[in-house]
Amino acid sequence: MKAKGLLPILIVAVLLVSGCSRQVQPPKVEEITFKSSSFTMVGDLRTPAGKGPFPLVLFVHGSGPADRYGTGEYLPIMARMLQAGYATFAWDKPGTGESTGNLDDRHVLAQRTQILLEAIKVMKSRPDIDPKRIGLWGISQAGYVMPRVLAQSKDVAFMICVSCAGMTGYDQMSFLITAMALCRKMPEEKADQKAALLAELDRARTYETYAEYLHYREVLKALAGLVPVPLETRAIVPEKTWQKNDPTTEGLWNPVKVIEQVKIPILAIYGEMDRQIDPLQGAYAYRKALGQAGNPHSRVEVFPNANHGIAVSETGCPEADQQWFEQYVKTLGYSSLDEALAAVQKDAYHFDKLSAWPFAPGYLDTMLEWLKELQ
User: Fold this and answer.
1) What order do you get walking across the sheet with 87-91 strand by strand?
2) How far apart are CA 306 and CA 269, in angstroms?
3) Taking a C-beta distance cutoff of 8 angstroms, is the pair 198, 223 a contact?
4) With DSSP H G I counted as helix, E B as strand and the rest as coil, what are the percentages for the chain, rounded to 5?
5) Which residue of 115, 169, 281, 349 lies most exposed, with the fewest beta carbons within 10 A?
6) What is the rounded CA–CA span in Å between residue 35 and residue 232?
7) Cα separation, 306 vs 87, whole angstroms
8) Cα(249)–Cα(234) distance, rounded to whole angstroms?
9) Which helix (H) or strand (E) element contains residue 132?
10) For residue 52, which phi and psi values (nearest 5 degrees)?
11) In Å, how far from its chain's centre is CA 79?
12) 142-152 and 108-124 helices cross at what angle (nearest 10)?
């Protein structure tokens, strides 16, 4: 379920640059501290210009360490939401920034779910926040956290789910390990076999029955055998466990079963080149689940030439993305990616300096338009 170290800083939104063509009124920023069990959580509530109460979007991190800015990635997204009249709230994960404590890998989803429930409770009590219009934005592992909240709370009005898996954590990790391994060069004599297996994977991605699921995992195993992968893939989920889908067995739980039942509007977004979760399987699973749930405002969007963070990418491979980002920052006047990241940290509060960001074309517009439709 964790992708720690596989895309270091690549899905980080890289840049805050000066010289923006028009001034954006900075938001009101208030630091908020709240408790969740043994954790002390610290984050920033940003409210837009105007008079509340405002609709609110809570930001839910992926796996691994993450601060209230998503190391910069959240800032342009927040800026667009604030311009649309939405407040935003994000916090440092436990053990990162000013938040205290450490998550237990055995119960990470349950702990993160409780933190999010507590954050919603805190926000509902505020007079400047509309308690009937509190929504979630989350990426990657958030796709396992947010559905757990939806199953326990009626206080979430909408959800934006970015690069959210449509399978168990075990299966997601098997895909990740295989997909990352396929970034490595392969002998030419295996090229035809690889092409045939990838074509079969496309057909197997729309699995619904347990037998079809087994076939999907068999194709992944065959692809992994071409490289071979540096780590063993996760075990196949037994049929009884697959059918039961118990959320207490975190790595064996499929969140899509919750999505089938909730009635709130959901926007699910994927990058076609994603190598951390299977984007086409995820998009298929979410379309099917949302169709069954029946909310007319729900949508699924897949962006071509985009990676796990919906940043521009030709392959989704870490090394290629690293090189692309290094070249990109130089076109904006930075000598290196490190210098650009330093600018992110220095100007974290300066929304008037947001200018360029290597997201896939249409990604931010899609979210903004969808949020406006909900107002």
Assistant:
1) 28-36, 39-47, 87-91, 54-60, 129-139, 158-162, 266-271, 299-303
2) 11
3) yes
4) 40, 15, 40
5) 349
6) 38
7) 27
8) 14
9) strand 129-139
10) -80, -170
11) 18
12) 60
| Separation of alpha carbons 304 and 285, rounded Å | 18
Report pLDDT digits (tens) over 292-345. 999 999 999 999 999 999 998 989 998 887 777 777 777 777 777 667 666 665
3-state SS string over 306-356? ECCCCEECCCCCHHHHHHHHHHHHHHCCCCCHHHHHHHHHHCCCCHHHCCC
Beta-carbon contacts of residue 194 (< 8 Å; ≥ 6 apart): 182, 186, 223, 226
Tens of pLDDT, residue by residue over 40-50, are: 999 999 999 88
pTM attached to this predicted model: 0.89
Return the axis-axis angle of helices 191-204 and 210-225, rounded to nearest 10°.
160
Q: Which amino acid is at 159?
A: M
Residue 295 tokens read as 């909310």
Q: What DSSP state is assigned to residue 359?
A: B
In angstroms, rounded to a whole number, what is the distance separating the alpha carbons of residues 91 and 68?
4
Burial status of residue 165 (CB atoms within 10 A of its CB: 0-12, 13-18, 19 or more): buried
pLDDT in tens, 132-145: 999 999 999 999 99
Contacts of 342 (CB under 8 A, 6+ apart): none
CA dihedral 349, 354, 357, 361 (to 10 degrees): 120
Q: What was the pLDDT predicted at 62?
A: 96
- Which letter does DSSP use for residue 18 in this model? S
Q: How many Å apart are CA 75 and CA 178, to the nearest integer?
A: 32
* Alpha carbon distance 89, 82 (integer Å): 11
